Amino acid sequence: MRDRSTHLLLIGAGPVGLAVAKAMLRQGIAYEQLEADDDLGGNWYHGVYKTAHIISSRKTTEYADFPMPADYPDFPSAPQMLEYLRSYADAFGLRPHIQFRTKVLMCLPLADGRWEAELEGGERRVYKGVVVCNGHHWDKRFPSYEGTFAGEYIHSKDYMHPRQLADKRVLVIGGGNSACDLASEAARVGRGCDISLRRGYWFLPKTIFGVPLPEMVPGWSPVWAQRLLLRVLLRVVVGRYESYGLPKPDHRIFEAHPTLNSELLHYVKHGRIRPRPAVARFEGSRVFFADGASAEFDTVVCATGFHLSFPFLPEGIVPVEGSNALLYGGCTLPDYKNLY
Q: Does the N terminus or the C terminus of the chain have fewer Cβ atoms within 10 A?
């Protein structure tokens, strides 16, 4: 057992893990940062498709004390985001404190408030506490349907390159940001694309009047005013979703994560994306929908989100409700010391 009880264990070297590391280093807090991958960046290093761009703008995504390069576009690409994170780590001297290829298998609370960590390979260490920054876009959530699809059936996490969709009849399930990105890719390179929506979504353009939407809505204004502003803008710029063959949103803006995409409605109007209701069942390569219609597809992409998972913590130690961890102050558990 290696005693590191003068240090905090920081798990993960993605965007949040790097920011936490920088803060602890600045405050002189002793820590060890463990990262399972061979480089930093988290999802931007290993988990996004090659053509991905951020949906929040450059100005609303950058670290407050480390602006993105001025020559970056309003919506930087995945390679630009990764380069930015690497520059951030280098600027603040974070890389020497990261132990790469070091996967944490289990963290157990000890009676005195310290934590025991088991690493891949069998090594055990004791730390003062644990700071969890493992990300949430990796534990794939698949929907459950009657029957079995005979074609290619993947999660959006498995999608990396447009060639995976080239010349295929594609069905995308879901209405979030990844779903719209992948449907738009399929509209460009596939034989055709349908998108299955079990509910109405707020599809927001990434820019309005040339301004990135996240920068147009002032964050200091009350939520009701933000909703009113967006509804007025959407009615002027987009119109009614029903005119695109899309269901009317069944919730108010911000009650669920909005979808920022400027291509979906474009391709719907050009006949390259066909909206469909919820999937009812599979039968071979044919998919039946809730309205009784059916069609054959080569590939089904489930852009249906992720489970919130902490595989290195004892099951049930972090209460989870839907996609939210139920934490005091958003970062601590009342029953366990030194876990953040």
A: N
